[in-house]
Amino acid sequence: MRRLVKTLVLVSIILGFSFILTVASEYFIPGESVRPLAVFYLSTTFNPWLPYLTVYSPEAVTAIVWDYRGLDTLFETAVFYLALIAGIALARGISLKADPGNEGGLSVIVKTVTRITGPMIVAVGASIGLHGHLTPGGGFQGGATIAVIPLIIIITFSVFFVIGKGVTKDKMLVLRSFGLVGIGLTALAALIIGLAVGKTAYVFQNMAKPTSEVSLPAYFNESLVSGTLWFFNLFEMIAVAAGFTIAFLLLTYPENKEGENA
Amino acid sequence: MISIDFFNTYLLSIVVFSLVLNFALSLYGLFYRPHYIKKIIALTILSDTANTFAIYIGYRRWVSEGNTNPRPPVIPTTEITPSILSEFVARSVDPLPQALVLTAVVIGLAVTIFLVFLGYQLFVHYKTLDMRKIKRLKG
């Protein structure tokens, strides 16, 4: 009853103050047009008639994330990397005990359903990640979706089952480093090509620019890959999925009981 | 007085004011809840509220010309024509806040992972996650 009264009070505060705001002014209301910067992004994200400005990506958000403001996202990836490294460093006291050997986990129904849905979730995550330049989504979202799988398997089976299948912390660290190296190489791809053919090129370049002819292919085998965007999404997906798997593994190691040595 | 325009404005005001109240509640949780995990939960609510604010800034109102809705910043086809492009620019919402929010979400998740591991170490060392007790401990 008290909870209901509290909820009612909150809702009526929101409705009342919103009414006052509405009558008083229209300050909070977004306008009918967007900012000139947004018009620039929207009109150049997939515009074959402006070849020196476009990204050839129908998805404006991914185009901004990995092309217009690509350096921003590179440093964001660095923050993600460092935070996870800090997490692993703080988890130094956590170690895995011997496998108790008993068949743990949930019932056989849950295990069977997990076996069926597991590959489907991986497929959905890969689809989100690899179509990031065409549809809403991208490397981070796809990687986060794929990272659900180890978590579900840890809950329904056990953490020993996952480690027994070879998904260990060290292997995931290697996989994550592979993804991060891939991101770095993709960022330098245009520069490397430019050095190889002896033309001017820039770091984080995707399509050709007025001062640089070097361009990564927008189409591969007649399907749109938007130059570097596809590769960035692929490697980011690998790095994020492996990074979250490390965190889930470390957080679900069984704890020591009272009195045992940590 | 009750026109469609007024009603739209009222609904959008409800969104804004709910966000402000959510912001206040999460700040309360962050400052006055003694338990570490509850502080982390309040922090994630705070960052999500701030992200929603940022997306709201990039929102555009109902386009009165032709009475059409705004749409996401995604072109639904790869065979583009000038008319599709001009319609897209006329109707799509601002993609920049969404891209910045994507960055902020990733960083927020990374910081949350770090804080959770920090909480684990706090519990291992002090056998409690009550911040009032941890504050009184020396060394």
From TrEMBL, chain A:
Query: Span of the secretion signal?
Result: none
Q: What InterPro entries has UniProt attached to this entry?
A: CPA3_antiporter_subunitB (IPR050622), MnhB (IPR007182)
List the membrane topology term(s): Multi-pass membrane protein
Cellular localization per UniProt = Cell membrane
Pfam families with a match to the protein in the record: MnhB
Identify the residues that the record assigns to the Na+/H+ antiporter MnhB subunit-related protein domain, covering every copy.
Answer: 109-245
Q: Which GO terms describe its cellular component?
A: plasma membrane
TM stretches of this protein: 7-29, 78-96, 140-163, 175-197, 229-251
Predominant location: membrane
Matches recorded under PANTHER family: NA(+)/H(+) ANTIPORTER SUBUNIT B, NA(+)_H(+) ANTIPORTER SUBUNIT B
Identification of the protein by name: Sodium:proton antiporter
Name the species this protein comes from. Answer: Thermosphaera aggregans
Give the classification, highest ranks. Archaea, Thermoproteota, Thermoprotei, Desulfurococcales, Desulfurococcaceae
UniProtKB/TrEMBL annotation, chain B:
- Assign the protein's first listed, main location to one coarse class: membrane
Q: Which UniProt keywords apply?
A: Cell membrane, Membrane, Transmembrane, Transmembrane helix
Annotated compartments: Cell membrane
An annotated GO cellular component: plasma membrane
User: What InterPro entries does the database record attribute to this sequence?
Assistant: CPA3_antiporter_subunitC, NUOK/Mnh_C1-like
What residue intervals traverse the membrane? 6-28, 40-59, 99-123
Please report the record's description of how this protein sits within the membrane.
Answer: Multi-pass membrane protein
Gene3D superfamilies from the xrefs? 1.10.287.3510
Q: Does the keyword section mention Magnesium? A: no
Q: What is this protein called?
A: Na+/H+ antiporter subunit C
